[in-house]
Amino acid sequence: MPMSLPVRDTVRLLRIPFSFFLLPLFLLAYSQAEIVVHRQALAAFLIIHLLVYPSSNGYNSYVDRDEESIGGLERPPQPTVWLFYLTIFLDLAATFLALIFVNVVFAGCIVLYIAASRAYSSRQIRLKKYPVAGFLVVVFFQGAFTYYLSVAGVSGSALPLTRENMMILAACSFQIAGAYPLTQVYQHRQDLRDGVVTISYKLGYTGTFVFTAIMFVLCNLFYFMYFRARELGMIFYIIQVFFFPIVAYFGYWFYLVWKDNAHANFRNTMRMNWIAAVCMNGCFLVLIFITRNPLSYISVIETAVPAHCISQEELAAFYSAATSDPLEKRKIRIVAGKTGIENRYSVIGDFGKRAGDFEFFSNSTDLLPEPTLSQRMEYYRRHATRLSMDAVGKIEGFEGRKNTVTHLITVTCTGLFAPGLDIELVRELGLNPTIQRSSINFMGCNAAILALKNADAICRSHPQARVLIVCTELCSIHFQKKFNDDYLLSNLLFADGAAAVIVTSQPETRYAHHVEIDAFDAMLLHQGYTDMAWGLSETGFIMNLSSYVPDLIRDNIRPMLHAVGVRAEDFRHWAVHPGGKRIIDDFALALDLDKCALAPTYNVLRNYGNMSSPTVLFVLKDLLEKAKPEHLSERIFAAAFGPGLSIETMRLRYV
């Protein structure tokens, strides 16, 4: 007798739409995976939701031959042997496609999931008839294991079993542990007829709801621990917003069942399933949008200066001692008094010593012969790495998290050598040798903002990026015995310092608020092409630093902001590079700012001098550390000025 093939009923028993209820953990895995291989992720999604889950549903229906309502079907048709053959085909197809289009780890997980599903339903093993064992198998395989295999499919590699990942695996299992008994609450009679004693039957109607509430509290606790450990606490609170309708309906349904057990029926169960699935899928889609369309945030800024602190009076005295010309001595004294600098730091200790005790300069009254360029670069090589490491070393917890740094950007314009500062830092800090490196060299005082611009682009392109920026300048090694206006300014303005910044694609911070990077703008003032410039000579840098630079900035900063639609009154916080006191004064004048708004800039100039590229980061650090709760949503404007003459600006926001 030929075998019939009721195709429609067979496909219905696969309950493919039911995969929607099992989708949340895949979406969560997609949002949290360190790396996403989109082609593999799509293949994994199709394999899990169109092959594995339907096959499991179909096999369960074939074995149980349900006559009453089951998940997704209020009146299920009776299965035929063709359903069994179809599940075998789907299992084989899922395994084969997983090997071909995803990876071996994912394929292995699929095989284990299929085996557990068969053991749960098959008449030979029938784990589902044991209330505790069956419950634990479902909780593990549909919870933690499903998240694990989803990550393997999405990222192309196994999930590292770190402390944080164990937390989210636990959260996933407790999530299923809460949901699963509710799916059984209307099936007590049908299960008993089939010899199956479920965890829901053991708990009773009221006990099932109480147990589910406890499991969801534990699920929430582990979500909180996971996102807090990853410094993503904001995401946990986003989840709570989406979970509220689920909790509200759950409470309402519990009230109905408390009054009358007849409300523990198929329709209310499916209504609960739909509300939970819609809310959770929506929640994790939002998480995907947040994590896969990342922004960039300044996580922390730390700074360092050399051991030698030199007052402006000491430096002026050292400079004056190198000339016997009274006019030159007078000019040094006048310029030194107008810089707004009280102290600065240098890797050179000679500025506070007398001739005869010098280590860097010639031990003669006139400082001749001056150190050669080679000697200056050797001094740079010797001290730059150490000072850079001092700044990085101040980042709290860096040693334990340095392997999470994905990119390194070094910034300097006062010295060069190869292998360069970037490679020295990778070696000395023990960073991952596969870290992505780049360097911004010889671009002057605004190079830190250029580095932040690069870091911003990296973070917006890589959802799990963590960029370390290190700006190090040893300006004082280029002190030269020259007395024209250019060298009077440069010798009496510049100092040494380093700053280290962590920029991330996910919000994490040590400050009162997260600091989101909004936008960057730039302008080249070609009329100032020769007013800030330098070149190389046998004895060091040839400086061009004219007194017209403040005028150029004053005349152009407002038109520049107007051109990009920025209004000064929209910003309450300002981090401006202290190129010199006149530059700060004229910047405030041009934008009608109260000088109090630039207090961090004046403070850094007074206490550290102009350290070139890291200086604006010193200012920004001071500003961020003084943030208050009421500053939430307020905006920050940063600006720095470099050769060319170039203006680089950055907009940030407390979020």
Automatic annotation (TrEMBL):
Keyword ATP-binding belongs to the record: no
Transmembrane stretches, start-end: 12-30, 82-115, 135-154, 166-183, 203-226, 232-258, 270-290
Boundaries of every Chalcone/stilbene synthase C-terminal domain copy: 526-654
Chain segments annotated as coiled-coil in the UniProt record: none
Keywords of this entry: Membrane, Transferase, Transmembrane, Transmembrane helix
Residue span(s) of domain Chalcone/stilbene synthase N-terminal: 299-507
Localization per record: Membrane
Domain of life: Bacteria
Membrane topology reported for the UniProt record: Multi-pass membrane protein
Family statement drawn from the similarity comment of this UniProt entry: Belongs to the thiolase-like superfamily. Chalcone/stilbene synthases family.
Name the record gives this protein: UbiA family prenyltransferase
